[in-house]
């Protein structure tokens, strides 16, 4: 909590305003203050979004960190944790699939597609 609301944001979409209001509704209060540290460059990674394919075998000719906005090389992040990602083609996801859930988050029997 020493970072206050500066780093408290949705792990999936990185939104802070909407996320903070939803957390407040759930009883989670975050202090409205700037972080206690002085060197923000050291913590720049906290604002970074996951940007690589974590499929066991990445098929993308551009590599694991290559991504397009649409098509087979679109990088989808896990809809639950946003800590893992996959290219559509690497997990055999068609273009009409809007979300993906990683192995760690997928629960057997829920019908969620795993990579």
Automatic annotation (TrEMBL):
Keywords: Metal-binding, Zinc, Zinc-finger
Highest taxon of source: Eukaryota
GO CC entries: nucleus
Residue ranges occupied by any PHF7/G2E3-like PHD zinc finger domain in the UniProt entry: 48-106
Protein name listed in UniProt: PHF7 protein
Gene name of this polypeptide: Phf7_0
One term of GO molecular function: zinc ion binding
SUPFAM superfamilies: FYVE/PHD zinc finger (SSF57903)
Annotated InterPro entries: PHD-type_Zinc_Finger, PHD_PHF7/G2E3-like, Zinc_finger_PHD-type_CS, Znf_FYVE_PHD, Znf_RING/FYVE/PHD
Species this chain originates from: Corythaixoides concolor
PROSITE patterns, A to Z: ZF_PHD_1 (PS01359)
């Amino acid at each position: 909590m020493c970072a206050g609301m500066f780093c408290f944001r949705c792990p999936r979409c990185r939104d802070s305003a909407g996320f903070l209001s939803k957390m407040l509704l759930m009883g989670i209060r975050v202090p409205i203050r700037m972080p206690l540290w002085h060197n923000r460059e050291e913590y720049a990674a906290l604002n970074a979004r996951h940007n690589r394919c974590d499929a066991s075998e990445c098929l993308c000719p551009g590599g694991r960190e290559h991504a397009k906005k649409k098509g087979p090389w679109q990088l989808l992040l896990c809809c639950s944790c946003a800590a893992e990602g996959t290219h559509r083609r690497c997990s055999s996801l068609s273009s009409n699939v809007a979300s993906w859930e990683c192995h760690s988050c997928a629960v057997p029997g829920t019908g969620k597609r795993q990579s």
